[in-house]
Amino acid sequence: MPKQKTHSGAKKRFKTTGSGKVMKQSAGMRHNLEKKSSELTRRLNREQVLAPQDAKVIKKLIGEK
């Protein structure tokens, strides 16, 4: 059976930490930034940890165990 290919969309959007958790970039940082307060943009610029249920699916797409 051939090897499973990495999902190219997923590898651009997610990354795993050293402990195995999956991180993603917050939504809302692409446009209309002039209207958003600097407090909001700082908060949106952080990366978020995905829920374990979602992380299981994403790890399969990325090719991790």
Characterise the protein shown here.
By secondary structure, the chain is an alpha+beta fold. It has one domain (8-62): Factor Xa Inhibitor, CATH 4.10.410.60. It is 37% helix and 15% strand. It has three helices and three strands. A hairpin with a 5-residue loop joins strand 1 and strand 2 (22-25). The longest helix has 11 residues, at 52-62. The chain is elongated and about 50 Å long. Belongs to the bacterial ribosomal protein bL35 family. This is Large ribosomal subunit protein bL35. Keywords: Ribonucleoprotein, Ribosomal protein. InterPro entries: Ribosomal_bL35 (IPR001706), Ribosomal_bL35-like (IPR021137), Ribosomal_bL35_CS (IPR018265), Ribosomal_bL35_sf (IPR037229). Residues 1-15 have a biased composition (Basic residues).
As laid out across the biggest beta sheet, the strand order is 1-2-3
Helix content estimate? 25-40%
CATH-defined fold name:
Factor Xa Inhibitor
Q: Let me know the number of strands.
A: 3
Name of the CATH first level: Few Secondary Structures
Family: Belongs to the bacterial ribosomal protein bL35 family.
Keywords: Ribonucleoprotein, Ribosomal protein
Biased composition (Basic residues): 1-15
Protein name: Large ribosomal subunit protein bL35
